[in-house]
Amino acid sequence: MSEHAIEWTVNGQRRQDRVEARTSLADHLRLGVGCTGVHLGCEHGVCGACTVIVDGRAVRSCLMLAVQADGADVTTVEGLAAPDGTSHPVQQAMRDAHGLQCGFCTPGVLMTFAALTAGEENAGEEAMIAAMSGHICRCTGYQGIRRAARALAGLGAGSAEGSAAREDAA
Ligand code: FES
Ligand code: FES
User: Fold this and answer.
1) pLDDT, tens digit, for every residue of 103-145?
2) Residue 26's domain spans which residues?
3) Which of 3, 46, 159, 170 has the fewest CB atoms nearer than 10 Å to its CB?
């Protein structure tokens, strides 16, 4: 078994870890770092539940090796809210739009939306809706998640609730 030293940042904390060569980023985040909000569904890149942000991009952490995260800046769902507990805008939008039920798919969806709305650039509604195709949700029928995506894209009434009301009335 070969172990490698990695130096990286997880949710704003600089860390040094030793990881086995074949350990996935998802497994190391869950078992080595304690970020159990990184959910594992399919473990082969289909369901999106394990999505985290690596150097600004949404990544399926079941398809990446932990050793490949050497030098990277990684954010998991545990790192989304502000230190005082204030929800991140994507968390608020999903809550307002009733975009979750059991919550299994939710961390992955949140991380994809967070990556697409980071900084001054917003990927826009089309890209947000398209990105949902990489996430499997067994509960919601996707309508609430779509409303959250629309609200985050800054279209329509500009709030998830306003968007929800319009769709419900349609
Ligand atoms: S667990 Fe990674 S995509 Fe399903
Ligand atoms: S809310 Fe249950 S899988 Fe999406």
Assistant:
1) 999 999 999 999 999 877 778 888 999 999 999 999 999 999 9
2) 3-79
3) 170
